[in-house]
Amino acid sequence: MGMSVTISVATEQDAEQIFRLQYLCFQSEAALYGNYRIAPLVQTLDSVRQELVSDCVFVARLGDEVVGSVRGSITEDGAAAIGKLCVHPRLQGHGIGARLLRAAESALAEERGAKRFRLIAGHRSEGNLRLYRRVGYEAVGTSQGTDGVPMIVLEKAAGTYAATA
Ligand SMILES: CC(C)(COP(=O)(O)OP(=O)(O)OC[C@H]1O[C@@H](n2cnc3c(N)ncnc32)[C@H](O)[C@@H]1OP(=O)(O)O)[C@@H](O)C(=O)NCCC(=O)NCCS
């Protein structure tokens, strides 16, 4: 590939880069649903800063540039909610998304005691759903975002890794 992308824990200094990357990456989802009020697009920089303090946040870096991000936190029922997975459009399709997901899952299980992982995907986001199924997630229900987009809820038990992951 001729490039070396590393995955590491995000620092507070990464807030602006994560904020801008997320805004760029989720344009394709907004276009797919004709909805530019989806949560990753309306999240404020302050809210991203807060998540960096409270959540498990990972970034993918190419040199000094943040080219991918994901976060997760433990919910009231003890499952870990993973979200806002994104990879720069220029670097998608090289496994960075799957690596970010794996890093978040490991940290949430090992450092925060997660026994299950949960994430949501737009019902028409075929590529995203394929990625999640490939690494062992199964649809467990549906939900509706505040933006009105129907979402599919997927879960997997900690320690479940698909053979091809
Ligand atoms: C979802 C997202 C984070 C995935 O990131 P990614 O880095 O492209 O993910 P991966 O590379 O791990 O997997 C994507 C595809 O590349 C393929 N792939 C992975 N490694 C590969 C490699 N080394 N060579 C060729 N293809 C590869 C995967 O098999 C997968 O193929 P598929 O689409 O046919 O299933 C990215 O598309 C994104 O930012 N989308 C916009 C935001 C978004 O929708 N986020 C998710 C919200 S639920």
Q: What would you note in describing this structure?
A:
- With 165 residues, the protein is an alpha+beta fold.
- It has a domain at 6-115: Gcn5-related N-acetyltransferase (GNAT) (Aminopeptidase, 3-Layer(aba) Sandwich), CATH 3.40.630.
- It has 6 helices and 7 strands; from the N terminus they run βααααβββαβαββ.
- The chain has helices at residues 15-25, 27-33, 39-42, 45-54, 96-112, 126-134, and strands at residues 6-9, 56-62, 65-74, 80-87, 116-122, 138-144, 150-157.
- It has a 7-stranded mixed β-sheet with strand order 1-2-3-4-5-7-6, sandwiched between helices.
- A hairpin with a 5-residue loop joins strand 6 (138-144) and strand 7.
- The longest helix has 17 residues, at 96-112.
- The protein is globular and about 40 Å long.
- Bound molecules: coenzyme A.
Brief account:
The chain is of the alpha+beta class and 165 residues long. The chain has helices at 15-25, 27-33, 39-42, 45-54, 96-112, 126-134, and strands at 6-9, 56-62, 65-74, 80-87, 116-122, 138-144, 150-157. It has a domain at 6-115: Aminopeptidase.
Q: What is the helix/strand order?
A: EHHHHEEEHEHEE
Low-confidence stretches: none
Amino-to-carboxy terminus distance: 19 Å
Work out the radius of gyration.
15 Å
InterPro entries: Acyl_CoA_acyltransferase, Bact_Acetyltransf, GNAT_dom
Keywords: Acyltransferase, Transferase
GO molecular function: acyltransferase activity, transferring groups other than amino-acyl groups
Domain N-acetyltransferase: 5-159
Question: Helices and strands in order, then pairings?
Answer:
Layout: E1 6-9, H1 15-25, H2 27-33, H3 39-42, H4 45-54, E2 56-62, E3 65-74, E4 80-87, H5 96-112, E5 116-122, H6 126-134, E6 138-144, E7 150-157
Parallel strand pairs: 4-5
Antiparallel strand pairs: 1-2, 2-3, 3-4, 5-7, 6-7
Helix pairs in contact: 1-4
Residues 25-26, 28-29, 85-87, 92-98, 121, 125, 127-128, 130-131 line the site of coenzyme A (COA).
